[in-house]
Amino acid sequence: MGQRSIAFSVLIAATSLPGSLAAQDTIQPIEQGIRIGVTYQPGVRPQMLVLGGERSHMLDSARAILTRDLDFSDEFEMISLPEGDSMALWIDRSNLAPGQAPFVNYSLYGVLGADFVVDVAPVDSSLRITLYDVVGSGPRRQLNLAGGDPTERNFRLSIHQAADELVRAVTGRLGVAGTQILFVSRGKIYRADFDGHGVELLSTPDSSAMSPVWSPDGRKVLYMEFANGLGPLFELNLETKERRVIPVTASTLNFAPTYHPDGETIAFSRNTNQGTSIYTYNLAADCCLQRLTVGGLFDNLSPTYSPDGRRLAHVSTRIGFPQIYVMESDGTGQELFAPFEYGVSGSSNGPEWSPDGLYLTFHRDVSRTPQVFIMEVATRVVKQLSSTARNYDPSWAPDSRHLAFVSTRTGSQQVWIIDSETGRVRQLTRLGEARLPAWSPRLPERTNQ
Amino acid sequence: MRNTLPISLGAALILFVAAACGPGTPPPPPEPDPDSLAEAQRVQDSIDAARAAREDSLRRDRERLEAERRAAEAERARIAAETARVVEALSMTVHFDYDRASIRADDQATLDTKVAILQANPMLTIQITGHCDERGSDEYNLALGNRRALSAKQYLIDRGIDESRITVSSMGEEQPLALGQDEVSWAQNRRDEFAVMSGGTELRMPSMM
Known about the structure:
The complex is a heterodimer of chains A (449) and B (209). Chain A is mainly β. Chain A contains 4 helices and 29 strands. Chain A folds into 2 domains: 162 residues, 3-Layer(aba) Sandwich (Rossmann fold), CATH 3.40.50; 260 residues, Neuraminidase (6 Propeller), CATH 2.120.10. Helix content of chain A is 12%, strand content 36%. Chain A has a 5-stranded mixed beta sheet, with helices on one face. A 4-stranded antiparallel beta sheet of chain A has the order 8-7-6-29, with no helix packed on it. A 4-stranded antiparallel beta sheet of chain A has the order 9-10-11-12, with no helix packed on it. In chain A, helix 2 crosses helix 4. Chain B has a 4-stranded mixed beta sheet with strand order 1-4-2-3. In chain B, strand 2, helix 4 and strand 3 form a beta-alpha-beta unit. In chain B, 25% of the residues are buried. At the A-B interface, loops of A face helix 4 and strand 3 of B.
């Protein structure tokens, strides 16, 4: 309890500061100072309770989605009480005079172990979500949502976004519940919500497609489709549903594309008569195909840009089997990136640079079985994240902390999600097979998708 | 035909006699002139002979045409069978070790056969498609399949085949032959496939085979 009381005293100090809470989107290590919000040691997380309340289809759905999103943020210990939905815990909003705040039983919630409680209440036909700070005995954040039909996509999205705001209100970090994940199943590209709901086909029904990636603004998807032994790249506009072929890619097999952070250039792997090389192309100007790597005796593939666009990590087989290398964005300065033990470490593939620039993820064979790794860019320290069955093709969430990846631990290829901080895993897909996931960036406001 | 003239003559005689045997019996017919009979017979015989000769000639023509037709058909069938055998030899897959693209020693004979076929059929062009087993990154396997196809192509080029006759393609791990998750299945899937691109309707087996 000692650690917790330290944590809460910090919190109280923070809330007595003038001004509103600042939102932070990057992870700050503990030793650099005190975040505004709860400071806690790893393994000691705030206890979160979502209160029951007046029942309706909309309210029940909102509470269920919210609870799941807060749980999946991996930032809280979720409290579930045997009588968690008991009316004794509800906040009573009946018979309130205008402007009168309801009674919130902070001491009862504190006895139950909660650090924060969340209340979902109807206001006319809309919703009000309130986050209460139990120790601080006051409301921390309140969100008003339009409400609506809980079977509609927009409703779920608004709840996801509210959950993300609640996570930020407690930790200073915006959650990722309002993001989406692309994946490939039986040759088709699908998109799913963060909680696995709403799987939707994006490529054409007769396609044989691979390698989907998001544009940095989250509005477009770039991918490859097989056609007569060739592999042109296509760009799909998610709002207009228009799809166009990238002209210079129609005559060869191209794959594993990625956008430059400016959204205007793409880099991709291209099969040629001298093997596979990395090329760039200016999409915005529709010109300027450029080869970055020299082929010949070995292959270069799977480029991924650093968030400042200045470097590209990629795969190279120059030592006879694939490992992770890095180069300047013009192709110069190629050097080994992810260290390995010659004769011990297996092949490495599928790199992706984290959105905050601090990490690289990839998969590497351990005893001929691929496992998910992350490497801290500054120190080149490599850490293995998985060990059971085969795990590969990792993709970062915009929080630079969660990863989507493929695992065969259930017997078939499915997309799973792992939290690189706590190691907690959960399954995202339950289709026949699912592979090549790509986690979206923060998404723009959407209206009718 | 040669028997019907006497028959018709006889029939005419009988009818004449029958007609003559009614009331008011007509006088008996005059005796045929033996010379004119012989003359008529000779004429008939020569007509018969000419007809027979024509029939023989027509029959021989038909038989000759029939023989030619059968011979042409047999030749087409032979060419088709030979082409099929050549395509079969051309389509034999070569296999690879895990994460390798080098041609194995035991596949060299298969590739040498393809070299001979390409040399014996100058209009033939082929496509080589490289494949991988399901292990390894899906995207890396597209590059590895390409390497496997290039490897076979280089083998053929090194033995004199013009590179413009060979197209290279990769399907990575996307088209497995065997669906099992064991070494036997994986070994079958690590392969190059060879297919006719053009010039393959009539193919000659090279003389070495």
